[in-house]
Design brief:
heterodimer, A: about 375 residues, alpha/beta, five-stranded parallel sheet, two-stranded antiparallel sheet, B: about 475 residues, mainly alpha, globular
Amino acid sequence: MAEKISKLWQSSWLKPCCKAVLFILILFLLLYFFNYLYIKNIYEKGQSYQKEEMYSEYLKTLSPKQIDYAFFGDSHSAEGINPDYIPNSYNFAFPARNYVKTYYDLRKLLYRDNLNINTAVFQIDLESLSSSLAQPNHISDTRMFLQFMSYNEISKITGESVLFLWLKANFPVIGNGMDFFKPKEPFEGISLGWLKVVSDFSLVSDQVKFERAMGTYRFYFEGQQIIDSLSFEYFLKTLKLANDNNINIILIKTPVEKTYEEIIAAQNISKEDYYNRVFNGAESVLPEGVHVLDYYSLFFNNSEYFGDADHPNYRGAEALSKKIYNDIKNLNLSKKDKPSQLALIRISSGYESQAQLRNFLFLSLPTLVAISVLLLILRHSRKNPKR
Amino acid sequence: MLFNSLHFLIFFALAALVYFLLPLKHRWFWLLLVSVYFYATFTPAYLIILLVVIVLTYFTGLKIEQTEDKTLKKIYFFISIISACAILFTFKYYNFFAVNINFLASLLHWNYSVSLLSLLLPIGISFYIFQSLAYVIEVYRGNYKAEKNFGIYSLYVMFFPQILSGPIGRPSHLLPQLKQPQRFDFDGFFDGIKRMCWGFFKKLVIADRLAMVVNMVYGNLQDYTGIPLIVATVFFAFQLYCDFSGYTDIAIGAAKVLGVNLAENFRQPYLSKSIRDFWKRWHISLMDWFRDYIYLPLGGSRVKVSRWLLNIMAVFLISGLWHGANWTFIIWGGLNGIYILFSVLTSKIRNKMCSKIGLAKHEKLHNFFKIAVTFALINISWIFFRADSLSDAVYILMNIFSGWSLRFPVRHGGVGGWPGFLFSIFLILFLMLVQVIQETVGASQFFSNKPAWIKGAVYIIILLLILLFGVFGSNPFIYFQF
């Protein structure tokens, strides 16, 4: 027997195969280890995860599951609207959030969390529909969004295969090793979804203001489409989703600092064309019209309200939030009953289907192994029948 | 289907598995099928162009061999050459010439304009046409017998590891291997896999990371002067090398897995001691093609000195044009030609100078000096290669030494900040170390006497670096545009 095994080992294929299997196993274990470190030390300490966790904790305390004002948008809203100054509100906005993500986020709130929202405030700044926010593929945080989207849904949007998405979601360390060495993003805190910014744009020189404002303009608009078609499509879908759930809808333009506006004005960007398209689109979905709160020029000459050229800091957030609450109260929006049949809609999560597949494999694998062993025994007994 | 995609890895694994399960005599057919599928994943319509080139060169090759009449041989030969070049011209150069003719006409106030074509450049056209022409020329010269099997010949032209960006194969080297597939060999298989891994490392970890800085600077030139321009240009030199040689390593590795040996395309080019040496180490298959089918037929160096220098310039100008239909590429080619002319004409003077200042006595210092000067000259020519327009290239040259500002595009998230930038520098140094080992000892020699666990550890580290630090953004290879 020992001689047979030794012969088999020395054969031309078994040794290299075993070496290859051992190699792959070690590689996988090391990858798994680094992935674990990444998830614990980078991913779960990031803004996105922290904000989602805080929202989950907040939701547990909410009884009934109802909020009066929900804010959606990108970093302008995330940093500019402080729910502490707007009773029974929550800030769902997030940096670099495009309307594809906003749509699925709203869908999650309504159908997974069964959250009752009276009024939704959607940001419509000049860059809100820009293709710069659609980079690299409209849904960048696959791991997060798989909690309330299916693999197929994400695959249709991003064009990535399900296998690639599975890798991105379960092994987020792949391609992101540099995050281990990047300095942690300084954020001062999150309160009811609001991201606090403490920097003060009034303390920098005019030259630095200009350079930063120009950098911001370039990021949003240079080589980009001002209206990305998929983002616009999902903007309209978001409005329709809110409308179908009898939610009052308000569109909001957040304030910018004067330097940024001077750069925008000097470039060939037609605000009129942009907002015509946005409002015409909104009216096609909401025939009864939509409220618009325009704060674009509100703090032109108040650099102390900004952390940079276009993001309010904590002082600006306080001033803006108080103004928003005051203006919304004056709109006298009524509370609407929610349509009961929509509460029954169930959304699928990519992790659910993953778990189902895993369970299937765990159940079927022993069966497959048992069948294979039986077949091998049968084959062996046919070759060596007992005399 | 790019090499650096999950789709390609799955495709290649399946293709290789079925290839080795099939009987030897049917393997070429399977390779042909997967090559057709591979090319069709880009733009299926351009399979027609590829088929036209294959049919044209196959039948003219047969006719050339079958015909006894020398005049008729020449006619078939020129039909083949002119038709293939006409296809290349139509898709790659027509619009360039049309634009320049229209510009000239407007300058001379002529009421004449040439309409432009809106045709997409078929991927790999420059490579497979050159490979087909190599076949026709070798058959015409009597160096190789025309291939009778149309399928095998088609496979020679469209063999998937090399169709997109070479190496440009020769019929005498590639066709026999395709006709006589080898049995599965573990050593060849693992050598191929290792070569592919090294190629992925160069492309995903080094090239695509350096590209972030290069694109940031070259995309916003007016914002930078001095050091950022120098750094971006040097980064581009390594980006281009790692991108192209990375692709070549993946191609050679994939072919090796299948038991086919492709020609080498690079030999540590940035350790060249002269421009002539550089062009024996960079894109070797293309330069060999130009040498054998343009330079030598023009007379090579066996003519008068003036004609010889003209031959050199002609080859480099054509090489520049081959790379792209843009004046920047032509100037890039011409600049390299001028470098060679200068080195030829001043060879004696430079040797005398080195002897006088005593540099010739210190071999290592002398070699280091030669490598540094060659690298600097090549980098200057890469400015034209990378710049989007002539005016951009001129801007860089005028401002590359003005100002010592260290204001650099590392703040932007896409570059990865200072850690990403420093990591890029580390990668370049690591690459140069590997190049020095390959040049002096040879990589396989260096590893051969190391214990198995060290070899295993090195391969695991390379793979981990690819998985952790690779830039997985489906960035196409630079040479795909040629």
